[in-house]
Amino acid sequence: MDAVAAPGPETVEAAFADRSRLVEGVRAYGLIVAMWLRSTMAYRASFVMTTVGNFLVTGFDFVTIMLMFSHVDALGGYTLPEIALLYGVSATAFGLCDLLLGSVDRVGQRVRDGTLDTLLVRPVPVLAQVAADRFALRRLGRITQALLVLGYALATLDVEWTPLKVFLLPVMVLSGAAIFGAVFVVGAAFQFYAQDASEVQNAFTYGGTTLLQYPPTVFARELVRGVTFVVPLAFVSWLPALYLLGRDYPLDLPRWVAFLPPVVAGGCWVLAGLVWRVGLRSYRSTGS
Question: Within 13 Å of residue 134, how many CA atoms lie on the same side as its CB?
Fold first, then answer.
């Protein structure tokens, strides 16, 4: 039997370097967030007003859906509580992502005005600095509104809950936030080249969460395929939520794909990390 070769010193050193850089990135992110939290709490009245405003503005999305149901009994074959579940899951997942990583969409602006250069000279991962910059706690308003809709859905739906379904609910929210986060990072990396592509990124992030708030039956099959196999936003809410509801997916996929969101999220982050590195290495300072 051939002996298994032990990892060389270069491999071990690289593994420890990556781990150390990850730890440093998380630590730096926490320190920057704490700084912005102290700044936010210095003006508590402003924080409360902006949070309430964020809550009310995002709440109009669900009010629009409720107005639709004042004229119809079902939308695409789905009742209001069922759509509330889709809305609550996707909006909560996006809200968590937007709270933690929403600032990365400013990369294009930093490239244009040259402020990204100041982040490059610091011994801290650039992504951690960009993500934590201007941490906006007011975004809790969006999350609160989404959780209220999700609570309404869970209270009114006639679902036969099993331990597996109960376990799947938080998993799909957290995995959905991770998938949205990967899309944010890929969009930010694209801005190293386009420099003014934040609206393109928003089409997949803010536009994606709006898309997922409605049942897949109201969209063309080509679009459903796109958000399943190309930009896998369907794994945020559609696939796992339809399993909870006992409904079939329009593309006739096996039911076990409802449990793939963590796997999809991990794959998306591997891809996002590679794209981010390529984009960052291509940056040649302002004016280049």
Answer: 9
